[in-house]
Amino acid sequence: MNLLLQNARIIDPSQKLDASGMDIEIRNGVIARIGQGLKPDGDSRDLAGAVVAPGFFDMHVHLREPGQEYKETIESGLGAAMAGGFTGVCCMPNTEPSISDPFVVSYIKEKAAGHLVDLTICGTMTKDRAGEELSRMDALAKSGIRMISDDGVALRSSQMMRRVFEYAKMFDLLVTQHCEEHTMTVKAPVNEGRVSTKLGLTGWPSVAEEIVLSRDILLAEYVGGVRYHAAHLSTKGSVRIVREAKSRGVAVTCEVTPHHFALTEDAVERHGTMAKMNPPLRTQEDIDAIIEGLKDGTIDCISTDHAPHATHEKETDMVSAAFGIIGLETALPLGITHLVESGRLSLVEYITKCSVNPRAALRLPQVSVKEGTLANLTIFDPKAKWRFMEQDIRSKSHNTPFIGQDFVGKVIGSINNGLSHWPR
Questions:
Q1: Do 369 and 47 form a contact (C-beta atoms < 8 A)?
Q2: Which of 46, 99, 193, 416 is most open to solvent, judged by the fewest CB atoms within 10 Å of its CB?
Q3: Closest by CA position to 38, among listed 53, 27, 51, 50
């Protein structure tokens, strides 16, 4: 691929680079030259007003294959990621069969081969996510996984969790947990608070997240030398717990989803099951704490928890409906609209959360907008105003409350692995 990107604003936090009016010449998938006034020798694109950043990476997506291809496939999921401007994602292990075995890892890798979007794979902590027997971490590590989780099911046994940390330490695997004290959330579809009371639904208390998060951090600190990543934080208490742990030097990182900083529990009254999330949408007070955590560095990453579900799994009663929404196509506009345009984060800070920090947490090679490096780029217009419609969805599933929403910030394109994609 030979291409000249013209008049772009390059923002690369790893180089402390923020330069406007720049041209980027790409030859055979490599950034050959960066400068001003470069002359096109073949294809060119005028990117006036657009930002070129190191490719975005989402470290928490559900691709559903193998086993639930009616919701999503690896091909459709990576297509949705590409449409959302991502050049890399990490898929979670709650497939059927789960990613407890290197053979499943090989299957997924074969399906993802040759795509613009790089795929990293998360294996399970315990065999088949049952919480009773450790997974084959040695074999999974040799197969190339970077992270382990029993995603969607918090490990109940503290002793088993300790063993997970001890073995993960041996193979330098990042341990990530879905923090939920399950005895406190039985048949609870929404946050415990005003909305649950008004609708007569069992409430999901914030402390159910915070109990498991606190336990895990204490265990990680006790074992020592192990890396822990808390998935999709949703409460002000969780932000406080992580902040305090980092101040003690515990090797903990964490993430937040766009829907947890964009929507409160009030969205349940407007959108019904399309606002049923796991963990649930919380209060404005929680959102304010999440924003502060993003600003002060307590929260390292923005991840989508992209969770595709078929129509029939959402069009039912609140208790029976599946948790979660798709998120890859709406991640950037939600981030720009709610964080950057509002003045809560700078573009440099936002890009750091979406590109630099996820790769750092997973110990993946960093990507840079630098001469001589492979072109791995996310390109977006931070000022574009547009309306997200159903035809913009590339995922196989369409479960999202954001259809018809007006946004600021739109993906223009992505480049990686010698390939480029330019959404409509």
A1: no
A2: 46
A3: 27
CA distance 192 to 184: 11
Q: What is the three-state SS of 18-56?
A: EEEEEEEEEECCEEEEEECCCCCCCEEEECCCCEEEECE
> CB of 57 within 8 A of CB of 87?
yes
Q: Is the previous residue joined to 279 through a cis bond, with omega within 30 degrees of 0?
A: yes
Q: Pick the closest to residue 152 from 177, 122, 181, 116 (CA basis).
A: 177
pLDDT tens readout for residues 249-295: 999 999 999 999 999 999 999 999 999 999 999 999 999 999 999 99
d(CA 54, CA 37): 22
Q: Give me 28's structure tokens.
A: 């055979």
Does the predicted TM-score (pTM) go above 0.85? Answer: yes
In 3-state terms the chain splits into helix, strand, coil percentages (rounded to 5) of 35, 25, 40
Q: Which regions of 62-139 does DSSP assign to beta strands (E)? A: 86-91, 118-123
Of 12, 216, 305, 381, catalytic: 305
Domains of the chain: 3-51+371-396+404-421 (2.30.40.10), 55-362 (3.20.20.140)
> How many angstroms separate the CA atoms of 163 and 176, rounded?
14
C-alpha 289, offset from chain centre: 19
Computed from CA positions of residues 275, 214, 237, 229, in that sequence, does the dihedral angle turn out positive or negative? negative
Structure-derived torsion over alpha carbons of residues 411, 262, 361, 33, reported in degrees to the nearest 10: 20
In degrees and rounded to multiples of 5, residue 44 shows phi and psi of -145, 155
Is 305 marked active-site?
yes
Torsion of CA 179, 185, 189, 195, to 10 degrees: -100
Taking every pair of Cα atoms in the chain, the longest distance, rounded to a whole number of angstroms, is 65
Task: Measure CA 341 to chain center.
Answer: 21
